[in-house]
Amino acid sequence: xxxxxxxxxxxxxxxxxxxxxxxxxxxxxxxxxxxxxxxxxxxxxxxxxxxxxxxxxxxxxxxxxxxxxxxxxxxxxxxxxxxxxxxxxxxxxxxxxxxxxxxxxxxxxxxxxxxxxxxxxxxxxxxxxxxxxxxxxxxxxxxxxxxxxxxxxxxxxxxxxxxxxxxxxxxxxxxxxxxxxxxxxxxxxxxxxxxxxxxxxxxxxxxxxxxxxxxxxxxxxxxxxxxxxxxxxxxxxxxxxxxxxxxxxxxxxxxxxxxxxxxxxxxxxxxxxxxxxxxxxxxxxxxxxxxxxxxxxxxxxxxxxxxxxxxxxxxxxxxxxxxxxxxxxxxxxxxxxxxxxxxxxxxxxxxxxxxxxxxxxxxxxxxxxxxxxxxxxxxxxxxxxxxxxxxxxxxxxxxxxxxxxxxxxxxxxxxxxxxxxxxxxxxxxxxxxxxxxxxxxxxxxxxxxxxxxxxxxxxxxxxxxxxxxxxxxxxxxxxxxxxxxxxxxxxxxxxxxxxxxxxxxxxxxxxxxxxxxxxxxxxxxxxxxxxxxxxxxxxxxxxxxxxxxxxxxxxxxxxxxxxxxxxxxxxxxxxxxxxxxxxxxxxxx
Amino acid sequence: xxxxxxxxxxxxxxxxxxxxxxxxxxxxxxxxxxxxxxxxxxxxxxxxxxxxxxxxxxxxxxxxxxxxxxxxxxxxxxxxxxxxxxxxxxxxxxxxxxxxxxxxxxxxxxxxxxxxxxxxxxxxxxxxxxxxxxxxxxxxxxxxxxxxxxxxxxxxxxxxxxxxxxxxxxxxxxxxxxxxxxxxxxxxxxxxxxxxxxxxxxxxxxxxxxxxxxxxxxxxxxxxxxxxxxxxxxxxxxxxxxxxxxxxxxxxxxxxxxxxxxxxxxxxxxxxxxxxxxxxxxxxxxxxxxxxxxxxxxxxxxxxxxxxxxxxxxxxxxxxxxxxxxxxxxxxxxxxxxxxxxxxxxxxxxxxxxxxxxxxxxxxxxxxxxxxxxxxxxxxxxxxxxxxxxxxxxxxxxxxxxxxxxxxxxxxxxxxxxxxxxxxxxxxxxxxxxxxxxxxxxxxxxxxxxxxxxxxxxxxxxxxxxxxxxxxxxxxxxxxxxxxxxxxxxxxxxxxxxxxxxxxxxxxxxxxxxxxxxxxxxxxxxxxxxxxxxxxxxxxxxxxxxxxxxxxxxxxxxxxxxxxxxxxxxxxxxxxxxxxxxxxxxxxx
Lengths: 589, 589
What we know:
Two copies of one chain form a homodimer.
Chain A: H1 21-29, H2 55-65, E1 70-71, H3 74-79, H4 86-93, E2 103-105, H5 110-122, E3 126-130, E4 150-154, E5 161-165, E6 170-174, H6 179-187, E7 191-192, H7 205-211, H8 218-221, H9 224-227, E8 228-235, E9 238-242, H10 254-258, E10 267-274, E11 276-277, E12 281-289, H11 292-304, E13 311-315, H12 317-325, H13 332-347, E14 356-364, H14 366-382, E15 386-389, H15 391-399, H16 403-411, E16 417-425, H17 429-447, E17 451-460, E18 464-473, H18 481-498, H19 517-536, H20 557-560, H21 581-584
Parallel strand pairs in A: 2-4, 3-4
Antiparallel strand pairs in A: 1-2, 5-6, 6-10, 7-11, 8-9, 8-10, 12-14, 12-15, 13-14, 13-17, 16-18, 17-18
Helix pairs in contact in A: 2-5, 11-14, 17-18
């Protein structure tokens, strides 16, 4: 894994073979990507603080996982020091490595994970679980200035599908398995999990669960919260076992507390997940809509209908233009077809600048696919949608995991690019979109930097959908790219919560989104999360500071850790909330 | 509402007009229901302890909701003193009323609810929310010997549908609305919520949410956990506002913490719920399967297929026999048809004693209903299922909310009858069934009392289903019916958790199921719930003792209440769990 960027060392994105891309980027960002970029520092140039792993803890960890699986290697520590958010990447490239872990341990069994947590609690160390390391919310980095030893627990040796229960369509799977390996093991017996997030190649089942991940085909397979039934989690008070029952009424759902917990309650070692038979047919078709409003309305009507496609996605005009700009060098036939389509659409009265590209997927038996397509196209047709066949969909399907590499390509050239996604009820989506576009573009303008902001809708539900924004900016030389980026990112996130939408649909909170948590889930919601985390992890050993930031009112960590009786604060981990807060709470809508 | 039984004062069940019922009950329970039963005590005979509502709190409550909505009326206090579990009914009939509330208050707005909670926290009183009062898990009764004032908060004045967002298919609804009133308000505009639990007529939206309820058509509409998107909850630290977004990644789901919280986190005042257009067609068809195994297999295959019926239900042979015994007096034509069916099935080689009655429902457009039925009947046919038309389904549909009245009818005659339900993965269902039948029938035998135990499968999911057991026993005169009943109930519940199933699919924990909680969700799961409750409600004012019993290790309530610093126990509300518990945890499967 690259220590400074996304994915495998030998894979990178290039504009070559995509003749329209460089001109497009030049137009929207005033950036000439044909000029070679500057790579990150060489690893050897980094200043890497020495590990402070003390002998006692080192011995405990060696007892726990075997000496050969306790690493204090510098590259290991740097790779495990944080995730792959844009902020992470910029800081890594600058050699600003943050609070590195003192050790990376690689347990192979639940028993070994338990031994690691036991050692950490006993020696007052911090443990941070690490799967694929692809968090883009700052969930993997120790708190700045953490004075206790920090242990990154790399879970990827727990990578096996333990059992497929064909009768119940459930698979028992170890949490450290990467997406492709999971699918390979399941496919071998004719099964699929059907969970394909953008990070698929570099993320693990445990990471998906810990962040409430969602995948490209979640319309059909469900988000990871729906897919995940049983759980085994090592907590400070023992192994939490959630039975893989389909639904239960055992008080507030403990299963749902683990989902999205980002390592704050324990380390997930195993999950029992839904699997389905690999479908006999799978189709992703491209559609064009005359406008964004028409595309939105079509997706909404599909969600309210009796049709159940596996993928529903529509890009706004900005993202559509970008998609077209990333096309490979066209063949002469491509050119003719493309020209013919343009003529046809222009004659129909379409404004080609406003047109929106959409993908709709169908899966199942041939009959089912045909029936779903018919039902769906009755709706797309009502909104002026035009099916443009399978080739755009196939291309999308092949390229869907490559997008994160583009960030590194742009960053080599000084331009930060990132994503922010949210969800909201159908009625609010257009307003959320308008507010975010105004906020993002307003930020570019205030900064006086060229920028581009685009969006697609994906993940349709009964009552709403996800809006996924991608943006890039090109700060002039001499400016702090990270500062400029943060101005834009914050403007977009603030527009989410100000518009009644959520801070993230499936990228989690980590540290990068935690400042919007209270506005999203309200102050009493934060009290509840804090109560859960602090009561479950009284020593604050489990990935502290994530989701809910440490409360500055309550003194140093030393007084918090371990002994319950020495704490001076109340049960909720802060001053008793004032009852006057009844007056100040208001509905977000 | 009856203070001693189910539902409206003027409604009761009778065997009259059901010629086969009395002989059936005589055969299986040695009980002659034709003999008149003995009613409960007259209300006037009850010994009702005086309210201990002190003047200060009374004044605060009057300020909060208006003097006329603070009731200390005896009948009000008795009706609000507990729910309608079998244990509740037996004790009520005996005049053993438990720890009655000192006052029943009836707020009309969220603001008034907040004022009640503020008064309760300030004066250290206990608040117990009350909707329809139909809990059958002991969620509504104050703890025995509670020394603090107890306030029952009757929510039924908050009964309005505030808004229907037709675009998002969401309705904002006050939590105190009863099922029929909710449907009436929604139906008036062409919408339905589609949530129809057995308790429908006597339960409220807030109660459904607080217990993670499930309804008869949840296969289509989703359990209440799925239906409920937005929430407003009055908590000790202010109004919790959960935005009605379709999916979110804001850490552990606060929405899911409220679901099933039984009043321990606050009082739910409002929810934003999924609604759908009233379907143009709705059909519930009856089917017969040759055996229980065939019926189970058919339901499982339907769940794994591309069919999506709205109701899937199959009774075992015992419940099938009971259902047939409750038929109304047949017309001559009925007799002929029934005889012809028997002859036909016998010729097909069916054992009529083993045959199982099933209902499958279809909803939507005429096309959709026809397509779903075709897909479904391909599967039922493979398992020997035979469609017997619409009349049994219509009858089931009309009578479905009457079942709880039968309990009172039998109790009048000294025979306790009750239900216990669970869920498990498809693969385990037959084993769970076998174990529960053995446990229940074994208990009848050990007690030496006639008893009857029957079951149906309902609520199919991807990976499993709910098994719903109903049982009755007829303890001879001179025995304690409650004691005998508890032996059977406990045997069944124990068989659930011993077989890897859950303690309840949709009836909640309350006090009656809490003894199995740790076996179900494991000790660390209990630690997490305790952390959540105690951190959110540091004064233990909110329906204490429900779901997680008070921890006897930790001294009297006085030391628990209010001041955080005076507590001598750890953050998890108990002694620090031993790390040795890692060794003792094991998987339930």
